[in-house]
Give the backbone structure.
Amino acid sequence: MSVLHIVNKSPYERHSLDTCLRLAKPDSAILLIEDGIYAVQQNSATSSKMQQALSNHPVYALQPDLEARGVNPDNMIDGISLVDYDGFVKLTTEYDRLQSWL
Amino acid sequence: MASKKFLYINRRPPHGSIYAHESLEVVLIGAAFEQDVTLAFIDDGVYQLMQNQDTGGVGLKNFAPTFRALGDYDVNQIYVEQESLELRGLSKDDLIPLTYEDEDDDWAEKDSIHVVSSAELADIIEQQDVILNF
Amino acid sequence: MKFAILVNEGPYTHQASDSAYHFTEALLRAGHEIVRVFFYHDGVNNGTRLSVPPQDDRNISERWSALAQQHDVELILCVAAAQRRGLLDDDEAKRAGKDSNNIAEGFQISGLGQLIDAGIQADRLIAFGD
């Protein structure tokens, strides 16, 4: 499969998520880690952008990073899947290339 | 071993942090490995290619002239995202002209820099084997 | 599958080194092969043996050292980045006329070519940074 895009920045602080969404081809996947997980929150300024992203890409978020930040999975935008580190590894084997939007 | 396609994505401006400078060091070392090398300048990364950079007053090493040597290292696929330039009020004329001599075309001097749309750049990203983002 | 890992930030300030460590552990759990962990930019600071974190905190460099020892993982600090930031092995320290080295167990200093080589050898290269 194609590219796994990894975003580790809060969408409110930097443009990493916007750039990633602009340059990610349909069917490539997006994984939110570290401060990137703040993009999962529903009813936020980012949620319409994420809902649109979900129509083109599978979107994952790293659960330990959500838990560390007190973000409740119940308030996640529908369609985002949680993975743990083992799931993170599995994703990196399923996609041929990994692009970290540092 | 068959060569791989390496893409270096540059998204940070020069001088405010060391990422751009140390990224160029990777590109120069990587050129010796005879892999297929492509550079992309996106977001604030386009500022790395600005003409007339003069770091004398801030005492930092000016590595911008080194970009001109890339052609001699067979690094001549350099893509700059149009949207990133436009957002910053820049055009190709604001960038250091980078050229190479095409050995397959009687050593004609050619432009290394290609200004491309996001869609074209998205295709280029998909064609790579290894992506390094600095 | 063969993996290469690039760590671009030092310990404690950014989460990058922690994320890279947890990911590397998960790779080993899944039975993957680690070609190399390459430390670049401020990432070379992960290789100091002189950090003394509080007792209730993780010891990031020791944790990497243990991983290297237990699983034979190659930990490489980029020489140019390391010299700039004062990370020296015995040879480098002697050559530069410094009074001590400060590299933690299991880390080695080598050239940037090791990063490119890791990209060539590995099936996947993943970067952690700021």
Observations:
- The CA atoms of residues 16 and 101 of chain A lie 6 Å apart.
- The domain at 3-100 of chain A is CATH 3.40.1260.10 (Hypothetical Protein Ychn; Chain: A,).
